[in-house]
Every structure is written in structure tokens, then in C-alpha cells.
Automatic annotation (TrEMBL):
Residues 4-306 form the NAD(P)-binding domain. This is NAD(P)-binding domain-containing protein. The lineage of its organism: Bacteria, Candidatus Anderseniibacteriota. InterPro entries: NAD(P)-bd_dom (IPR016040), NAD(P)-bd_dom_sf (IPR036291). The keyword NAD applies.
Length: 323
């Protein structure tokens, strides 16, 4: 397959690219390398994650530039699109709702339009567990009503799903939306808890735990990549799947796992869960197991060990380079 990955310099995109290249697909990454978080990490992923594999083609550009998308699809004979480019994260979406809407909603329309004009055969698009918003019944199932988002980010992801459903209805393109649950692992995003806590613990700074009862279905990156590729290989019609580990981990268990992985105790201060954040997430993954052969296997204890080993090797190399 000739696959375009939007947001391909991102955390999930770069790992997905690596796995697809390893099995022999041709991969083109499109990313604007924006500075929502330190772009040195995006550059480092491109420079180092493909050192012992085939290299992806890297295009620097914006998904809002539909002409560029169309040109890329034509030039590289693209037949499949994995659409991951987005502004991620809940809290900044409350500060900057407009950019979230522009990129996550209008940008998705731009990708869908470019795809249908040039005969793309299948699309996999990123949604998020945040679409479950205020729902308190656990675990979250794909057939729950998601029309109650509690942050602009969640609303843009629900809108992404609606756009995808519409383009499938109008043009018959097979499209699969994946609701990712708190993904972590090597080369992960620096503002996410596991990365930020590791940094703080090593620097002997206080970590701020957003509620001791807060629970997250932390999902290891390799498991997510297996689900994304399963979705690509099995795309037909329009479908939505949860991709979680299916293990609700309270924050104190995640922190204990990190302390053990790093070999150092944390100084913890409990703070309230901010507005916009969901108190608990847990994925029902029955559908993904059945249809995509999705089989997550990595516990938080095992995953944090792998993350800590990566952090130890790479953090300073990446972030001491000049921007
Ligand atoms: N990581 C998670 O826990 C998680 C959870 C739920 C959903 N998601 C979704 O999965 C997708 C990938 O997430 P990630 O963790 O890899 O995030 P990421 O921020 O590392 O990756 C997104 C990439 O998209 C790029 N991008 C943003 N705006 C762009 C634009 N206008 N044009 C071109 N590129 C642009 C960014 O530069 C970035 O490299 C996102 O859609 C995110 O919303 C992630």
C-alpha cells in the first residue's frame, strides 16, 4: 500500500509509520511540525526512529492546504490515508478553541475532500476517548451517546467522526474512526502525565496529581499501532472502535509504577481535576478485538519500564539540542 499519514511526525504517527515501513508499505508523512509542544521532539522522531529501517517521505505542510494534500496524493500514488494530524490535549483547547476547530474539524474536511477527489480506497482517522465526555457508566462502549462533550477538544473529535460518517455516506469511502485512550510510550508527548511526571520526579520536583480517584485507561503505543494497522487492513463501510488497554488505572497506581520504573520516589501534591477533564476512562474493546484482531498486552507496570528506559537514553539528547 502507499499510505499517507497526516500528523506523521507526531507520537502515534511516527510509530505507525515505522511499523508500516517494516512490513513493506510505502509511507508518506505530512506534518506542519508546529510548536504546540517542542518541535525538536518531532524532528528527533524523524531523524532517529527510522535509522535502521526504510525511510518515509516527509512533507512539511498544513492539512488546511487542500491543494498540497491533493498534490501529495497524486505524486506518491497514495491509496490509503491515516489521518492523525490534529491539535491534541484537552486543557489548551479551552484556551484556544478556534485553532482546535480549524485544524481538527476544517482540516479533517480538507483531508476527506482531497481523498474522495483522488479515489482513496480507505481512511483511518483519529478520534479520542474524550468524546465520552460526562458519561459515568463504565466501560465506555462505542454505541453510547457522545453528544455531551465537556471540552472543545472533545467536541472537535466528535465532529471529526461526524464528518467521516458523512463522507462515507456520500462517497462510499471505507472510513474507520479510532477512539484512542491515553496513549503513552517512547517518543511520547511531553505534556502528557507519564512524560511530565517522569521529568519532575527525576528533577525532584513536586508532581501534581489531578485527583487520587482519577482513573485512566493508559494504552501502550505498540498496542495502539497494532490496532491502527488492524483498522487499516480491515476497513470497510463506516465504523468506530475504542482502542484502549481495557484496564482502568487509578493515578496512584500509575505513579507507583513510574516510581518503580525510574527507581525514585515522587513528591505528590493532590489537586482537583480541572474543568474539561474526564474523571475516569475505561474502554470496552470487544468490537476491536472481534473485527480488527486487536490484542493489547502491555500493563502499565511493563509500559512505564519501557518508557523510563527510553527517557533515560533519549531525553537529554533531544532537548539539549538547540531549537
Ligand atoms: N496520544 C493520545 O493519548 C491520544 C488520545 C486520543 C486521541 N489522540 C489523537 O490521535 C492523533 C495523534 O495524536 P498524538 O498523540 O500522536 O499527537 P501529536 O501531537 O504528537 O501528533 C499530531 C501531529 O499532527 C501535526 N499537526 C497538527 N496540526 C497540523 C496541521 N494543521 N497540519 C499538519 N500537521 C499538523 C502535529 O505537528 C503533530 O506532529 C491526534 O488526532 C490526537 O487527537 C491521541
Amino acid at each position: 500500500m502507499n499510505i499517507l499519514i497526516t500528523g506523521g511526525a507526531g507520537f502515534i504517527g511516527s510509530h505507525t509509520a515505522r511499523a508500516l515501513l517494516d512490513r513493506g508499505d510505502t509511507v508518506v508523512l505530512l506534518d506542519d511540525f508546529n510548536d504546540r509542544y517542542d518541535p525538536r521532539l518531532k524532528e528527533a522522531r524523524i531523524e532517529h526512529m527510522f535509522e535502521d529501517s526504510k525511510k518515509p517521505v516527509v512533507i512539511r505542510g498544513d492539512i488546511l492546504d487542500q491543494e498540497l494534500l491533493e498534490k501529495t496524493i497524486i505524486e506518491y500514488y497514495i491509496d490509503s490515508v491515516i489521518h492523525l494530524a490534529a491539535w491534541a490535549s484537552v486543557q489548551p483547547s479551552i484556551e484556544r478553541p478556534r485553532i482546535y476547530s480549524d485544524v481538527n474539524v476544517t482540516g479533517t474536511v480538507s483531508v476527506l475532500e482531497a481523498a474522495r477527489k483522488h479515489g482513496i480506497k480507505k481512511i483511518v482517522a483519529a478520534s479520542s476517548s474524550s468524546v465520552y465526555g460526562g458519561i459515568t457508566e463504565m466501560p465506555f462502549r462505542e454505541d453510547m451517546n457522545i453528544m455531551h462533550p465537556i471540552s472543545p477538544y472533545a467536541a472537535t473529535k466528535a465532529a471529526t467522526e461526524l464528518m467521516c460518517a458523512t463522507w462515507n455516506h456520500l462517497y462510499g469511502i471505507p472510513i474507520t474512526c479510532l477512539r484512542f485512550f491515553t496513549v503513552y510510550g517512547p517518543w511520547g508527548r511531553p505534556e502528557m502525565a507519564i512524560f511530565a511526571f517522569t521529568k519532575a520526579i527525576l528533577a525532584e520536583e513536586t508532581i501534581y496529581m489531578r485527583g487520587k480517584d482519577t482513573m485512566r485507561d493508559f494504552t501502550y503505543i505498540d498496542d495502539i499501532v497494532q490496532g491502527v494497522i488492524g483498522a487499516l487492513d480491515n476497513a470497510s463501510g463506516y465504523h468506530v472502535y475504542n482502542l484502549g488497554e481495557s484496564d482502568g488505572v487509578p493515578l496512584p497506581r500509575m505513579i507507583a509504577a513510574l516510581e518503580s520504573a525510574i527507581g525514585k520516589k515522587a513528591t505528590i501534591e493532590e489537586v482537583p481535576l480541572p474543568q474539561g477533564d474526564i474523571p475516569a476512562t475505561l474502554a470496552d474493546i470487544t468490537r476491536a478485538k472481534q473485527d480488527l484482531n486487536y490484542q493489547p498486552t502491555t500493563s502499565i507496570e511493563e509500559g512505564t519500564k519501557k518508557f523510563a528506559a527510553w527517557y533515560h537514553e533519549w531525553h537529554d539528547k533531544i532537548f539539549t539540542q538547540s531549537a
